[in-house]
Design brief:
Oligomer: single chain
Strand order of the largest sheet: 2-3-4-1-5
CATH class of the largest domain: Alpha Beta
Helix content: 55-70%
Strand content: 5-15%
CATH superfamily of the largest domain: P-loop containing nucleotide triphosphate hydrolases
Radius of gyration: 36 Å
Structural class: alpha/beta
CATH architecture of the largest domain: 3-Layer(aba) Sandwich
Number of strands: 11
Largest sheet: 5 strands, parallel
Shape: elongated
Distance between the termini: 73 Å
Number of helices: 30
Number of domains: 5
Bound molecules: zinc ion
Length: 653
Amino acid sequence: MASVSLFQKYRSQKFEDLIGQEVVVRTLKNSLASGRMANVYLFCGPRGTGKTSTARILAKALNCEGTADNPHSGPTAEPCCQCSACRSIAEGSCLDVLEIDAASNTQVDKIREFIVDKVQFAPAQVRYKVYIIDEVHKLSDSSFNALLKTLEEPPKHVVFILATTDPEKIPATIISRCQRYNFQRFTLQQTVDHIKNIAAKENVQIDDLAAELIARSSEGSMRDALVTLEQAMFFCCQQGDNQQISGEDVRGLLGLAGAEAIQNLVSGFIAQDAGQVLNLLNELINKGRNLNKLAAELLEYLRQMMLVCVKAADQEALGVTDNYFQELVKRSQLVKLGTILNWIGSISELQRRLSGSQNARLVWETVLIQLTAPLAGTDESSLLARIEALEAEVSALKMLTSSYSVQPSIAQAKSANGNAVAKASAVEVQASSLEHSSISVVNSVPVAVADSGFVKPNVGKVVKNTQPLAPNVATTSSGAASGEGQIDDLGWGTTTKVSASPSATKVEVESKSAAVTKTSALPSQNETKNKQGSAGKFWQKLLAYLEDKKPSIFALVRGTKCLSARQGVIVIKFESDRQDDYEAASKERTNIENVLTEAMQRPIQIDLRLGKVATINPQDEYMHTVNLVLNSFAGQTLSKYANGSASDPTTRV
Ligand SMILES: [Zn+2]
């Protein structure tokens, strides 16, 4: 192995060797060629992007004497690298080109000693004295002040090149004296190409995955990439052997879990399989993978899933392989955006906890269990998952209840359970439409539990409004069977919300009564439309839009009803006699979603449903709902969610 590092060995010696900094190179070469050089240059950019290499090339270009056939009397756009000036600068032996590391020379005395006191002397060997000050932002305030006087009126024979990774920390008075150049991070492809290029020069075979893993770990710093490549060469290659670096070698060297392990982990999240993810974690730990890097890898994968989910990035933008992208899309389609965001929140939190923890394994295991068995936890994200599960169940129940009317006899059966239940079921009995019976299903459950001091108070308010409404529901129910649900946050049309105050409810009740007296028992088509929920109005508008703009899509969904439109998901119901249409629309689901997404200018998912005749005994159904709510919350609640039970955080029912 060579005694100099790969980075030094392959450091760019000419402007044309520099990769990835085209703007900087072109500007510098033009100013050199035209002879309009600055006295003070400021090179800004992340570490390992070639600032110091460029500074040395600039020093050579300023001082190059040229070859015998092509001598230069002044600066040149490209140094010859052969003359004594070029060679002495490259070797670091030129007395007039000084590199100063500001990080270790922060005090004002050093700046005076190296720069301020000596700047007046003419160069001894070459044309220009060049001061390259690395990490210049590390200088103290007094050092900057001492330097400022020199920078304001530098002697003609002096050029300063200030390099920094953090220009924000440099005083504005200094920056205003400088000609500023911004260096870019290297792209993944540039780094991969450079790694392969250098490996070839070193007679080392490196496979694509290995080069990519090294490039990714370097995060755009070529120096870091070459240091890792050198480590990999030490790690894998014995001198004289067939020198080869594989992706698996690099993964082991860097302690990376790898795409396959991350994909399996995410699959475990989707399947909610705690056993699978814990086994995977165990395997990775046994292989000696770095648990901090695992969090970073997982987070990056979830970020990509999120971008794919909202269609904000394609394969090219993500810079990934075909196979990887297909796997990514497959997983993104299996979960909702909210779930991905939830996972990202949990893993970010995990990353934070890892930094302060002695037991990384335990931290990981806890989070993996929380993510794969959310019903076990009592933190906010677990409660959210439980509420989501409930919402799905309730939504399914609404579908069922739309197909039958509850028999009055149940009211008597339930009144034994207590007064509150009797009141709530009275509403249930009198309502025969989907809209009102579903309200009663939702509300009657909390009422049943309210007597146990279990539910937060505002649930009670909703119920209060239901009671005065009940008699009128009975009288209007024949006409109000619109079968339309609720809408929120889709931003289309007007969203009417029922006011929580009893007086407002009264007004609504009166208007409903008036409508009944004015019209016949069966309201006209127009009347029915007016009574539809806001989701219905919204859907009618959307259907009209489709009929106008996208007739082919309209043909698929015409005559359907909208059960709900919430959080980007529109639930669309086909009547039970339209199975063929339902199946045709299901096949075209993605197309319909795309058209709706375009129309709404936000991601829309649709949930297609076919109306069915229910065969479930209504009383069983009612008890099922009660049990569902109780089970979902394991019969307990937290003090922050309960009213007046702060002293007893886990009130058991
Ligand atoms: Zn030269």
